Amino acid sequence: MRRLLTIAVALMALTPLVAASTATAAGERLTTHDLLSKRQAASVFPGLKGGTRLEGRSGIVAPRFVKTHGRLKCDRYRVFKGVSRRDAYFFNVNVPRSMTLDQDVTRFRTVRRAKALMRYYRTYLRTCRGTHRTTDGQGGKAWMKVRRWQPPRIGADSIGVYEAFIQYGGADWTRTIVARTGRTVTVQEVIPYVGKVGTKRAIRISRKAISNLR
To answer: What is the CATH number of domain 8-212?
Structure first.
């Protein structure tokens, strides 16, 4: 929280510094042009044609793990907001092509911090690969499967996550690619409501996402 300055001279002395900081921040801001467009999404996933696209600024919602009473739990989440963030959410609920595509883009203050996020994902995958017991949010039993897959290099660095939420014998699979260029990280999460997502389309949409970044 910013402290209130009570001395006018101090305020005048700090004004140039505040202005410079604001200008720097403005140059770092992500815009809608850094996100996938509806046309780009539909060119890779025809099921999204005619669907809906929403924008927000939530940051990267990354999976995380905790150990409680000696038990490993991999169904937690952590948000990374960086210095600027944008996200686009595409969905189409019309059967048989119903699916969602969630893109989260975050720009960090330094390349080092962006690389740290990539290492964070790799740590999660090393620790949580396998099957884990969880709940359906209402007290019912459920399981999650976590797998790592390595896409070809996208941007400066990339990693793939393949997860399933299993309940009542059915499984909803999510395929994710995390890709970095400079100090910006973009995450594409694809969730089909019917069937599974192949690697080729996930790679194509991630390459389009990286190509949009300035």
So the answer is: 3.40.1000.70
